[in-house]
Amino acid sequence: MNSNMSQSDDTQNEENVSSICENSETRQQNRKRHQRHTLHQIQRLEEYFWGNPHPTKKQRNELGEELGMEPLQIKFWFQNKRFQMKVKHEHRENTFLRVENEKLQEENSRLRESLINACSIGCGRMFAARDMSSSERQLRMENERLTEQLCMYTVLSRSCSSSKLHWQDVFIFISIFFWSGCNF
Questions:
Q1: In the chain, which end has fewer C-beta atoms inside a 10 angstrom radius, N or C?
Q2: Would the pTM of this model clear 0.85, i.e. be above it?
Q3: CA 171 from centroid of its chain's CA atoms
Q4: How far is residue 184's CA from residue 182's CA, in Å, rounded to a whole number?
Q5: Rounded to 5 degrees, what are φ and ψ at 47?
Q6: Distance between CA 57 and CA 63 in Å, rounded?
């Protein structure tokens, strides 16, 4: 009885395997073969693409008749080409932005380094920015700005004292620029 069962099991397994093989062969026969486009077709499609990347259904039909292709093939070719162009554009843009980002990071690290090793022009003393509070940092920057403005006003007043301008005119001139926030 066991030998009968094993023979029937083997026969059933062989039938299942053969039916699976037949089904896959039938599917492969029913599936269309992938056909590459000719060089002439590709050149004509490229030429048309640069003039009009979104052809209408009528234009696709006309182009299909001209090239001996199905309108659906042309539709898919144009979709693929637009996608390729988008990917190339994004790649170029990402490369540019990556380079720009690296430049900014280098500049940022240089500025951080110079801030750490900053030297006060007024007193000539080195100080570490990380050791200062933010209010002290602001006061030092304001002090530097005011010192620069004072130097500019001194130079301006000396140059104006030798001309025919009156010192009161110079004072008004300096006051206008000081209160308007202009830097020399």
A1: N
A2: no
A3: 51
A4: 7
A5: -60, -45
A6: 10
Place of tokens 């659906």: 72
Q: How far apart are CA 52 and CA 45, in angstroms?
A: 10
pLDDT of 55-105, one tens digit each? 999 999 999 999 999 999 999 999 999 999 999 999 999 998 899 989 889
Residue 14's SS3 state is helix
CA distance 51 to 48: 5
Q: How far apart are CA 19 and CA 117, in angstroms?
A: 81
> For position 184, what pLDDT does the model report?
45
What CA dihedral angle connects 51, 70, 66 and 40, to 10 degrees? 70
Tokens of 178: 């000081």
Spatial CA neighbour of 76 closest among 37, 39, 43, 33: 37
49 in Cβ contact with 81 (< 8 Å): yes
Gap between the Cα atoms of 127 and 132, Å rounded: 8
- The dihedral over CA atoms of 10, 13, 15, 20, expressed in degrees to the nearest 10, equals -160
- The set of residues, in sequence order, having a beta carbon less than 8 Å from that of 37 and lying 6+ positions away, is 45, 69, 77
Burial of 77 (0-12, 13-18, 19+ CB in 10 A): buried
